Amino acid sequence: MLQIPPPQQNLQKLSSGIPGLDHILSGGFPELSINIVAGPPGSGKTICVQQIIYTNATPNRKALYLTTLSEPSIKMLHYLQRFTFFDAEKVGRDVIYLDIGEVIRNKGLENAIAVIIKHVQEYKPGIVGIDSFKAIHDMARDPVEARKFGFDLSVRLTTWAITAFFVGEYSQQEIEREPIFAIADGILCLHNKQEGLSYQRYVDIIKLRGEDYFNGWHPFTIDPTGLTVYPRIKTPESFPDYQAVSESVSTGLATWTP
Ligand SMILES: Nc1ncnc2c1ncn2[C@@H]1O[C@H](COP(=O)(O)OP(=O)(O)OP(=O)(O)O)[C@@H](O)[C@H]1O
Ligand SMILES: [Mg+2]
């Protein structure tokens, strides 16, 4: 018979390390959750997940970052060095980078799962990032194979007690259509919206299972410290009661009399 776990008052949280983001996430990412960071190219997805990883990776909670076709790890490491959250001492010890693009290209998705299992068993990470997860989907022979891959991987990540971050250049239509978004516990969308002559970055949480997050579009910036989120101003749910007083106040200006 199905055992119902006792209700947990407080889910264990993983701090994002991104100023302002934990506030809109109601404290951080729930541990052991599967999260998708979606957005167009250049919206800040890789920097976002790298900042989360460098904040949380320790020798006791390693992070495994699997890169696919879109961004080989050597190129990523090159530009990450400019950020203050980057810690060269963690590379290879607490943060392990692996390129699985070649396996996927040459041996297909079934073998990619086997390779991921092998690496997880070897490094026993607490956090796994896949960048780009969408590139894996795009290489599937058909939608059924892509769906099976997403489902198999998600089930395994949950049983391994891992908090996962899947990065992908998904469009709004794909977010509504792709089954992986139904499986995911958390979905973050990064936007770069044209406003007049310039662009403004926004983060929008679409889903966070089991949490009452702060919805809406929250502005964020990217600078050498990484991402900084500025939670939007919340409209009060109810306006304070007040009595209108009808009283005239003098302007203090002299009145011209002819
Ligand atoms: N030091 C910096 N200061 C300001 N902005 C920066 C800095 N470094 C990078 N950026 C911005 O970050 C963006 C790249 O972020 P990132 O690589 O995380 O995007 P991405 O969403 O992963 O893109 P892709 O889908 O192409 O991989 C660049 O477009 C650039 O504008
Ligand atoms: Mg990227």
CATH architecture: 3-Layer(aba) Sandwich
Structural class estimated from helices and strands: alpha/beta
Order of helices and strands: EHEEHEHEHEHHEHHEEEE
How many strands appear in the DSSP assignment?
Answer: 11
Number of discrete domains: 1
What binds here, in terms of ligands, is:
adenosine-5'-triphosphate, magnesium ion
* Molecular shape: elongated
How many DSSP H or I helices? 8
Strand adjacency order, main sheet = 5-4-6-7-3-8-9-10-11
Structural summary, described in words:
By secondary structure, this protein is of the alpha/beta class. It has a single domain (32-229), classed as 3-Layer(aba) Sandwich (Rossmann fold), CATH 3.40.50.300. It contains eight helices and eleven strands. It has helices spanning 21-24, 45-56, 73-80, 101-123, 133-138, 143-159, 172-177, 180-183; strands spanning 13-14, 29-30, 34-38, 63-67, 95-99, 127-131, 163-168, 186-195, 198-208, 217-223, 226-229. A nine-stranded mixed beta sheet has the order 5-4-6-7-3-8-9-10-11, with helices on both faces. A two-stranded antiparallel ribbon has the order 1-2. Strand 8 (186-195) and strand 9 form a beta hairpin. The protein is elongated, with a radius of gyration of 23 Å. The termini are far apart. The model has no long low-confidence stretch (mean pLDDT 89). The structure holds adenosine-5'-triphosphate (ATP) and magnesium ion. Residues 39, 41-47, 70-71, 82, 169, 222-224 line the site of adenosine-5'-triphosphate (ATP). Adenosine-5'-triphosphate binds at residues 39, 41-47, 70-71, 82, 169, 222-224.
